[in-house]
Design a protein that fits this description.
The complex is a heterodimer.
Chain A (H helix, E strand, L loop, with lengths): L1 H31 L6 H19 L2 H22 L9 H23 L15 E5 L2 E4 H23 L1 H11 L1 H6 L4 H23 L9 H16 L4 H27 L4 H26 L11
Antiparallel strand pairs in A: 1-2
Chain B lengths: L6 H23 L2 H26 L8 H16 L5 H23 L4 H21 L9 E2 L15 H23 L2 H11 L1 H7 L3 H27 L1 E2 L6 H14 L6 H19 L4 H14 L3 H6 L6
Antiparallel strand pairs in B: 1-2
The chains are: A mainly alpha, B mainly alpha.
C-alpha cells in the first residue's frame, strides 16, 4: 500500500513534468498551428544549461534561474531565425524542419558539452527523504518538483487567463488576423509565446536533471510522451493537457511498477521482467489509440476549431 | 508514354545506368564498401518508395513507417532463429505479417486527420518498437543476430554481394513500376483526389476510407519487403530498425527526392545516404550540417531534388 502511494506520487511528478512540456507544445500548436518536434531539444538544453551554471556558480537555485533565462533566449532566437518562416506551411513541413532542428541541437550539444553527459548534483538540503505519512518516506526533491511545477502551472493559468498578454495569446489563438488588424504586434507575440514554451520545456529539463543523467537525446522520449498527452487532451487545450498529463504520468508509472509483478503470475520470471517494462510503455500508446478512436479530436477539443 | 528528353529524365536515366553498372565497377576495382553502401541505398529507397505512395500521393503523413521495416525484418529474424531459412517461407510471411500490421494500424489511424494522424502513426510504431524490445527470446533490446541469410533453394545466393545487390535493384524497380501503375490507375486517381479534397471525393460517392486503407496496406507491405531485405543485408534485426528517427529519415528521403514523383524517393535516398556518408567523413559532427540543410530544403525547395530538376514545376 505504501509502495502504491509512493508510485502514485511518482506518477503525479512525471505527469507535472509532462505538463510543462505539453503546455508549451499545445500553446505553440494552438496559437501558431505549428508542430514542434524540436521542443524536446529545449528540455535537453535546459538540463545542460543548469548543469553548466551549477558547476560555475555552485548554487542550484542560481543555476536554475540562469538556465531558464538561457532557454528562453534560445527559444526566441530559434523562433526568429527559423520557426517564423514555417508558419502557415503544412504540417509535413513542420515535422521535417523541426526534425532537422533536433539533429542540429543534438549535435551542437555533443560539440559543446561532449558525448559523455553530465550530472547535476543536488544541494544537501534537498537530498533527503521526508516522512509524508506514518511509515512512508518520500524524497524531498521530488516533492519540490511537484510543488514547483504546480506553481508554474498555476502562474501559467493566471498569465493566460488573467493578464493582458494572456488575453492577446488567447485572441491570437482564435483569430490571428483580427488581432493583427487591431494593432497588436503579432510577430513579437509569437516570438514571446515560442520563447515561453521553450522556457517551460527547459524548466522541466532542469528540474528532472538531478534525478536522471543529463545526456544527448534525453528530450526525445519524453517529447513523444508529451505529444501523446496533447493528443489525448485535445490539441490547443491547456486544461486538457493538464488532465491528460496527470493521467499519462500515473498510467505510465503505475504500469511500470506493477505490470511486471502482474505478468509474473502468468509468465516465467525472466520473461516477465523483460516484457513488463516494454508492455507498460505500450500502455500509454494503447490508451492514446483508444482515445483517438473514440474521440478523434482528443478529450477536450478547443471550442474555436 | 513517350519520354521527353529533358534534364530531369536524363538525370534519372544516368542514375539508373549507374545503379545497373555499379557492381561491374566494384567488381573490377574491388571496392566492396561502395557496393554495400548502395545495397543499403536501394533497400531504403524501396522503403521510401512505399512511403511516397501514401505520403506523396495520398497526403497521409505517416510518422511511423519504419515500423513495417521492423516487422518485415523481425519475421525473417524470428524464422531464422527458429530454424526456418527458406526464403520461400520467410519472404511471403514477412509480406503477409506487414500487410496485416498495416491493415490493423490503418484501421485505427485513418479515422484521424492532420496532426492527429501524424501522432497516432508515431504512437503505433512506438508500440511495435516496444513489442520488439519485450521479445526476450529474440534478443529484446539488444537485437537478434541472423546466422544464415534467406535460402532460395540454390536459385539465388544472397551471400553473394553482387547477387544480393541485383535482387534489391530488381525489387526496387518492380516497386517503382508498381507505384507508377497504381498512381496512374483509377485507384490512384481516387487516392490523389482524396489528397486534394477528401470531402469532395466522398461526396462524389467514393468510399474514401476503404481506398485509403488499401493504399496504406500496399505501402506497409512494400515496406515490409524492404525490412526483409534489410535484415538479410545486415544479418541482424533490432528494435533500432524501427526507432522513430528512422521514420523521420524515410520522410526526409521522400521529401528530399520529391514528393508525388515516381523516382523521387530513389533520388532522395541516394542523395540522403551519400550525403550522410560524405558529411560524416568531412566532420564527426555532420548532423550539425544536415539539420539546417533539411530546414533549407523545407523552406526553399518544396519539390525536392526532382522538383528542382524539373525546373520548379511544382513551385
Amino acid at each position: 500500500m505504501f509502495y502504491f502511494i509512493e508510485q502514485c506520487l511518482n506518477g503525479v511528478q512525471l505527469g507535472m513534468l509532462l505538463f510543462l512540456l505539453a503546455a508549451g507544445l499545445t500553446l505553440i500548436f494552438g496559437i501558431m498551428d505549428l508542430v514542434n518536434l524540436a521542443h524536446g531539444s529545449f528540455y535537453m538544453l535546459g538540463a545542460y544549461f543548469a548543469a553548466t551554471f551549477a558547476a560555475l556558480t555552485g548554487s542550484f537555485v542560481f543555476a536554475a534561474v540562469l538556465a531558464l533565462g538561457a532557454t528562453l533566449l534560445v527559444g526566441m532566437a530559434v523562433e526568429v531565425i527559423a520557426m517564423r518562416r514555417l508558419y502557415g506551411r503544412d504540417h509535413l513541413d513542420h515535422v521535417l524542419g523541426t526534425f532537422g532542428l533536433i539533429l542540429f541541437f543534438n549535435e551542437l550539444v555533443r560539440l559543446v558539452w561532449g558525448p559523455e553527459g553530465m550530472n547535476l548534483p543536488l544541494p544537501n538540503a534537498l537530498n533527503t527523504a521526508v516522512q509524508i505519512l506514518p511509515g512512508v518516506y518520500y524524497p524531498v526533491y521530488r516533492i519540490v518538483i511537484i510543488a514547483a511545477t504546480v506553481a508554474v502551472a498555476l502562474s501559467l493559468y493566471v498569465v493566460v487567463m488573467r493578464t493582458r498578454v494572456g488575453m492577446l495569446i488567447r485572441a491570437g489563438a482564435s483569430n490571428r488576423e483580427m488581432v493583427g488588424a487591431l494593432g497588436i504586434n503579432i510577430k513579437l507575440l509569437y516570438t514571446f509565446v515560442f520563447g515561453l514554451g521553450a522556457a517551460l520545456a527547459g524548466f522541466a529539463g532542469l528540474m528532472q536533471a538531478p534525478i536522471l543523467t543529463v545526456q544527448i537525446g534525453m528530450g526525445e522520449n519524453i517529447l513523444i510522451l508529451a505529444f501523446v498527452v496533447i493528443i489525448i487532451g485535445g490539441i490547443g487545450s491547456i486544461r486538457g493537457a493538464f488532465i491528460a498529463s496527470i493521467f499519462v504520468g500515473l498510467v505510465d508509472t503505475i504500469g511500470r511498477a506493477f505490470l511486471p509483478d502482474l505478468l509474473r503470475l502468468f509468465l516465467s520470471t525472466n520473461t516477465a521482467s523483460t516484457a513488463g517494462p516494454a508492455l507498460s510503455s505500450m500502455l500509454i500508446y494503447l490508451l492514446m489509440a483508444l482515445v483517438l478512436v473514440l474521440r478523434p479530436e482528443g478529450l477536450f477539443p478547443p471550442a474555436s476549431r | 508514354m513517350s519520354v521527353a528528353l529533358n534534364i530531369r529524365n536524363l538525370v534519372i536515366a544516368a542514375l539508373l545506368t549507374f545503379l545497373v553498372l555499379l557492381p561491374v565497377y566494384t567488381g573490377l576495382s574491388g571496392n566492396v564498401f561502395l557496393l554495400t553502401l548502395f545495397t543499403r541505398v536501394l533497400i531504403l529507397a524501396l522503403a521510401a518508395t512505399s512511403l511516397n505512395l501514401i505520403l506523396g500521393y495520398g497526403g497521409m503523413v505517416s510518422f511511423g513507417h519504419a515500423a513495417y521495416l521492423g516487422v518485415g525484418g523481425y519475421v525473417v529474424g524470428i524464422l531464422a532463429k527458429e530454424g526456418v531459412y527458406s526464403g520461400f517461407v520467410q519472404w511471403p510471411l514477412a509480406l503477409l505479417v506487414s500487410a496485416l500490421a498495416s491493415f490493423v494500424i490503418g484501421l485505427f489511424c485513418l479515422r484521424t486527420r492532420g496532426v492527429y494522424f501524424i501522432m497516432i502513426t508515431l504512437a503505433f510504431s512506438q508500440m511495435i518498437y516496444y513489442v520488439a524490445v519485450s521479445l526476450a527470446r529474440y534478443g529484446g533490446d539488444d537485437g537478434l543476430t541472423i546466422d544464415r541469410r534467406s535460402q532460395f533453394a540454390g536459385l539465388l545466393n544472397l551471400n553473394s554481394k553482387t547477387q544480393f545487390y541485383y535482387v534489391c535493384l530488381v525489387l526496387l524497380l518492380g516497386a517503382i513500376y508498381l507505384v507508377w501503375r497504381l498512381v496512374n490507375s483509377r485507384f490512384g486517381m481516387v487516392i490523389r483526389g482524396s489528397r486534394s479534397n477528401e470531402r469532395r471525393m466522398q461526396a462524389i460517392g467514393f468510399p474514401i476510407f476503404r481506398y485509403k486503407l488499401v493504399c496504406f496496406v500496399i505501402a506497409g507491405t512494400l515496406c515490409g519487403l524492404a525490412g526483409a531485405l534489410l535484415a538479410n543485408q545486415t544479418d541482424f534485426v533490432s528494435p533500432a530498425m524501427m526507432h522513430w528517427t528512422r521514420s523521420g529519415d524515410l520522410i526526409v528521403m521522400v521529401v528530399l527526392g520529391g514528393m508525388a514523383s515516381v523516382f523521387g524517393p530513389l533520388i532522395g535516398s541516394v542523395a540522403f545516404l551519400v550525403l550522410e556518408e560524405f558529411l560524416s567523413r568531412v566532420t564527426e559532427y555532420w548532423q550539425i550540417i544536415l539539420g539546417p540543410l533539411l530546414l533549407l530544403v523545407v523552406l526553399f525547395a518544396r519539390g525536392g531534388i526532382d522538383g528542382l530538376l524539373a525546373g520548379f514545376r511544382r513551385g
